[in-house]
Amino acid sequence: MNKQTYTIGILSITALILFVANLMMPTSAHGGFVMKDRDYQLITAKQQVGDEAIYVLDSRTGLMAVFNYDPGRKAIVLRQVKPVQDAFAGALPVR
Question: Which of 12, 19, 30, 43 lies 20 to 30 angstroms, CA to CA, from 82?
Fold first, then answer.
């Protein structure tokens, strides 16, 4: 076995390992994902460039909470809780 055959074999095995590792990666959250159950709705959306937020709507109380990831704390942080009707406060009335 010469040096060229050995190098091609090592590169092929490395490519196979990287391919399998890429297939096994967990899926990440994508903006626009919605999950609805009886009392709660969860919505992910882009907040800033490269940053996503999770909006949690409580149907019973009419409150909406916004969470996002804080890399400094390495935790999900509550940003704000407001009534859902505040989002439509400036909207025109339906006639």
Answer: 30
- Helix ranges restricted to H, 1-95: 3-23
41-88 pLDDT per residue, tens: 888 887 776 678 888 988 888 899 999 888 888 888 998 899 988 877
Q: Which of 90, 49, 56 is nearest to 76 (CA)?
A: 56
State pLDDT tens for residues 77-91.
Answer: 998 899 988 877 766
Reported in sequence order, the residue ranges of 2-95 that DSSP labels E, i.e. its strands, are 34-36, 40-48, 51-58, 63-70, 75-83
Q: How does DSSP classify residue 38? A: S
DSSP state of 86: G
63 contacts: CB under 8 Å, gap ≥ 6: 57, 81, 82, 83, 84
Look up tokens 């890399």; give the residue.
Answer: 71
